[in-house]
Amino acid sequence: MNPVLLFGDSHVRRFCSVLSGTAHRYIQRQAAYAIELLRWPLFPILYFLALYLTYSVSGREVVSGYPVSGFLLIGVLGMVLWSSNLWASGYAIEFERREGTLQTLFLSPASRSAVVLGYGAGSLLIMVGPTAVVLVSISLLLRIELAVASLPAVALSIAGMFLAAVSLGYVLAGFFVLTRRANVIANFLQSPVLLLSGAVLPVQELPHALQQFARVFPLSHGMDAVRESLLAGATVGDVQGHLLGILVTSAGLVAIGWLLLRRVERNARDGAELDYE
Q1: CA torsion 140→37→84→259, rounded to 10°?
Q2: How far apart are CA 267 and CA 244, in angstroms?
Q3: Cβ-based burial of 204 (10 A; exposed 0-12, middle 13-18, buried ≥19)
């Protein structure tokens, strides 16, 4: 048998093993705190109600051609995905630094990318169930009408939004450690990214300069694709531009994230001080 194929298969198995092990450890850690089990169901409810009340008080019933409730429902999904990856995959290496295991991680044969993605996967597994229940409940209570013409379009759009959120978290993993100001930067980034992604306000209503900047964030393409496929009956052909945008911008972020992780790895192996803020 071809030894190259064997090596490749072994490498994939090792990558998946590290990813799944890290995800399992992350879930165990979060499940140990009751507040974490309550936060995921309550967080999207409170966020949706705050935004919905704001639009209701303003008297606005339609946003970018969609009912306010439907527009915000997708926005809350994007918000949860972004927040989850910001504090999980984005914070993955930072967690290792705080626990004093950063040097060990970079001296081990474990894939650093697998560790980062494992944190993100664990966070998504925790939030998917509660968030799905919350969003479905809200849609039923408010009688949000869906206009689905293509299930593949919906599936691809939601998958694209997941990919967009993961790529944003991945690029932050190395950046947070290199700056040594992870908590400050993470808190600062939360609201600007939500604004630029179109979670709370249509990107088309932002100033022109910000609209162009918003297209750098794959999450904005994901928001548009999911809204069009769920609320406007879009087909795969209709959302293919958004899907392509997600792939291109996500690939760029992943490439940058990989380079940043390599930089952190070099610093760790050279004995650079990474374990302080």
Answers
A1: -150
A2: 35
A3: exposed
Q: Is 257 exposed, middle or buried (0-12, 13-18, 19+ CB in 10 A)?
A: buried
* 264 closest CA partner among 182, 200, 192: 182
Secondary structure element (H or E) that encloses residue 67, with its range: strand 66-67
Nearest to 242 by CA among 150, 124, 154: 154
Gap between the Cα atoms of 245 and 231, Å rounded: 20
CB 237 within 8 A of CB 172: no
The residue to which tokens 């249509």 are assigned: 202
pLDDT tens-place string over residues 33-72: 777 777 777 888 888 999 999 999 999 999 988 999 999 9
Global pTM reads 0.84
pLDDT of 265 > 70? The answer is: yes
Of 93, 237, 252, 100, nearest to 175 (Cα)?
93
Residues 268, 96 contacting (CB under 8 angstroms)? no
